[in-house]
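Bug report

Summary: C-alpha cells for Coproporphyrinogen-III oxidase differ between web form and batch submission.
Environment: batch mode, default settings.
Steps: 1) Submit the sequence below via batch. 2) Compare with the web form result.

Sequence submitted:
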Amino acid sequence: MTQAAFTWDQDLIDRYDLSGPRYTSYPTAPQFHNLISEQDIHQALARSDASQRPLSIYCHIPFCDTVCYYCACNKIITANKARAVPYLERLFREMRQMAERIDVSRPVDQLHWGGGTPTYLSLEQMTALMQHTRSLFNLHNDDSGEYALEIHPASVTPATIKGLRALGFNRLSMGIQDFDARVQKAVNRFNSVEEVTALTRAARDVDYHSISMDLIYGLPHQSVQSVSSTLDQVLALAPDRLSLFNYAHMPHLFKVQKQLDERALPAAAEKLDMLHMAIDRLTREGYVYIGMDHFARPDDELARAQAAGQLHRNFQGYATHGHCDLLAFGVSAISQIDNLYLQNHKAIEDYDAALDAGASPVAKGFLMSQDDELRKAVIMALICQFELDFARIEQQFGIQFNDYFGAALAALQPMQADGLLSLTDRRIRVKPAGRLLIRRICMAFDAYIPANTEQRFSRII
C-alpha cells in the first residue's frame, strides 16, 4: 500500500465519530466466555504445533509504584516491592505449564513485556524473568527477534536501559503522556524532559532498534498549545515510533479516573483540534501515519511492514509479527493459539489460587468459527492496510465475497457516497478522509456489533 495523504474532514468526523471497538482482536474481548474446555485448549495446541508457526510471548507485570489517574490498565498499585517475588514465582510456574504442552523448538520472533510497569521489577528480577523464558522457549540469540518492553521513564536509569539491552531487548516504549507540569500534577504522572532525554541517549548508545514514545491527548488542563509544546520536546528526541492516544474518561468503568477533575478536561471540540494539530505536525515532520493513533518513521519496521502489506494488529496495537501464535502469561493476559483466544483471571487472587492448585489460570476465551476467522481477515486488512482485495479473501476462504458480505457492502454505500472509501465489485480502498474513521468502516463487517448495542466502547476518535 502506498502512503496516502491524510485528509481532515470535520463534517465527516462529526457524522461518524461514534463508539466502537479498537479491533486489537476479532472477535473483541467482550465476546469472551467461560465455556472454553480443556479439549478446546488441547486441540488448539495441537493445531499450533502442526502449523509450526513461530511464537510470540507476552508477559504482564501488573505492579506500579504510584497510580496514574487516567489509567485503564489492569494494575496493582503498591510500593511494597516484595509483592513481585511470589508473583514472579507463579509467572514462572505458568510458563512451565505451557512449555510442557507446546512445541518449544519453534523460534520466538516477538517478545513483549507490558503492564502495569514492567520496570517496577529490579534489574535482577528482570534478568531472572528473561533467563527463565530463555530456559523454556527458543529465543533468538542473534538480535533478530523483536523484543520490547514498556517503561515509565521516571522509574528507570540509563544504566538500566543498558542492562535491558544486554538481556536481549532491542525496542523500548516510553510512556511519556505529557511534559506539561500542570497536566502531570493533575494526572499524578511525572517524567521530565531531562529524564527522557538521558534514557533516549542511553538507548541509542547501545543500539536499540526502535524507540517508541506514547502521548495522550484529552487530559485535564491540556490545550492545543500545551500539546504542541510537548510535541516540540518529543520531536527533538526523534523517536522512531510515536503513539497519540485519546484519553477516554469512563470513571464508571475505571474507578481511579474519579480522581481527575472533570471540570479541567478539555471539551470534545478542543480534543479534536489537538488531534488535528498533532497529525498535521507529525506528517509534516516526515512520520508515516500508520493508522488510528500510531505513527512511525518511514525506515522503521512498522512502516516497512505496512508498505509490504504485512502489518498486523494484536493486543499491544499495530505489530509486525502477525504470523506468530501468541502465548501470554500473567494476570489478565490474553493468548491467541491458532483459532483460540484464552484470557487469564483478571483478579490476582484468582490467578494465584489457580496456579497454587496446580491448575491453569485461564478464566475465559473464545474459539473462532470459520466465519470469525473470515471476518477477522477482512477487518485486519482494512485496519492495517486501508484496502481489501476480494480475490485474496475468496481464495483463502472459498467464498464469493459480494454474496457473503452483501449486507456489509450495503452498509458501506453511504460511506462511499460521503467519500470515506471507494468500493468496486473487487476491492475496497479507504480514502484519505476515511483513514481516521477506519474503526467505523471495520464495524460494517463485525457480526457482533448488533448484539453489542449496550456494550460501552470508547469513541472512535
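Above is the batch result. After comparison, the two runs are identical; trailing whitespace caused the diff. Residues 268-284 form the longest helix (17 residues). The two ends are 23 Å apart (CA to CA).
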